Automatic annotation (TrEMBL):
The keyword NAD applies. Keywords: NAD. This is SDR family NAD(P)-dependent oxidoreductase. It comes from the Bacteria.
Amino acid sequence: MRRLFIFGLGYSAGVIADRFTAQGWEVMSTGRHGTLGFDDEGTVRAALADAAAVLSSVPPGGEGLDPVLDRYGDALAGRWLGYLSSTGVYGDAGGAWVDESAPTGTGRRSARAECDAAWLARGARVFRLPGIYGPGRSPFDRLRAGQAHRIDLPEQVFSRVHVDDIASGVLAGIAAPPGAYNLADDLPCPQNAVIEEAARLTGLPLPPLLPLDQAGLSPMARAFYAENRRVTNRKARRVLGWVPAYPTYREGLRAVLAAGG
């Protein structure tokens, strides 16, 4: 049986683990919902020795260091390597399209860009992800909790991806050459459009349209609006043979509702 070891079994990695298990893989993991402790070095190294593939979704640590490479990098040679990164490594593009050849490290995710580069140097498949949504993490949840925002920035666009499409992209990456792959849907758009569609589907009230300075956003959320770009998925389609099941937020939101979201 093929074995996948996942560092950091969080939201996206959990869905990936389920997809691999359904394909006959044995999955072992660290993280909130994992079976092993990251610091249990002897057990982790023993599991890595039996793994055909290793995937990390662990975010950067202090000073831009990657915790997995720093602790276990010497145990990863000779295995398929995958890393869940962020399209935030591209920084602000003024709303222009970016692909995997765009420069990285100029935006707010400088530490992520350093880790992204370190995994690429190891020969990993680096999956760069935009805004992630799915059951349990969607605009419906934010609307119900009164935490959704509509910001008056009509030229601001973002890309996003349904968590199921992340899982299918990583699975497709098992047979792909090393390199960076953007896993994003086909329709970058303003965040307001997504919130408005979620409200339309549920009948929940729309939050007011506010200027950025009056929205009461946290520093992290405010930084999210400091970057503006459209992310293309052409390479993933061409090289991985990946086709998103939810090419726009419209199909994705309906699927979340159908799943009980």
